[in-house]
Amino acid sequence: MTFDISKAWCRNAGAREDGLDIGAGVIAADPMFTHEASADESPEASRLALGRFINLMRRDQGLSIEALADKADIEIGELLSLENNAAHLPDVRTLYQLSEIFGVSQEKLMGLSGLTHANDDDYVEEAVRYAAKSASVEVLTEDEHAILNGLISVLSENAKQK
Predict the structure, then answer these.
(1) 114 and 120 in contact (C-beta within 8 Å)?
(2) HTH cro/C1-type domain location, by residue (predicted)?
(3) What pLDDT sits at residue 33?
């Protein structure tokens, strides 16, 4: 079987899909996918924000790294790497498990990790600002609580619709 597809047809088909996310569900994202980062975008910065978010959510729930790993059914080493290593590229399954535990959008966690790139990634900038504002302390301050709750609401927007 052969196909006779013209360049014009391909261009028209591409134009119709411009700006759309293509895939078979959120979990179908290819973990090897990387996109060209623009000058103002840093995967390491967004991964730092992801790690900071996980750390604060874990502490807010009164969980040790081991307890969260058990609760989410993920490896302790994976969780340690997520919290402490901006170069670490997490597993899609890990992000799914954490999104379920924390009640936030898996799609947005994947965007923070650099596994995917959304058309509307303002939440990535917000998460990086949030990570920069939060300081490492044992107990969350009222300000950190307020910042964390703000980020939870941003990351949860689409989770409730699914």
Answers:
(1) no
(2) 54-109
(3) 45
Cβ contact 95:113 at 8 Å: yes
Instruction: Give residue for tokens 């994202």.
Output: 29
In the chain, where the domains are located: 44-156
Nearest to 102 by CA among 138, 29, 152, 157: 152
Q: Which two tokens stand for residue 125?
A: 């900038």
pTM, two decimals, is: 0.61
Q: Tell me the C-alpha distance between 150 and 162, whole Å.
A: 20
Q: In this structure, what token pair is assigned to residue 61?
A: 């729930």
Q: Which fold has domain 44-156?
A: 434 Repressor (Amino-terminal Domain) (1.10.260)
- Nearest-angstrom CA–CA distance, 105 and 109: 6
CA-to-CA distance for 5 and 60, rounded, in angstroms? 56
**Per residue in 90-147, pLDDT tens?**
999 999 999 999 999 998 899 889 888 766 678 888 888 777 777 554 577 788 888 8
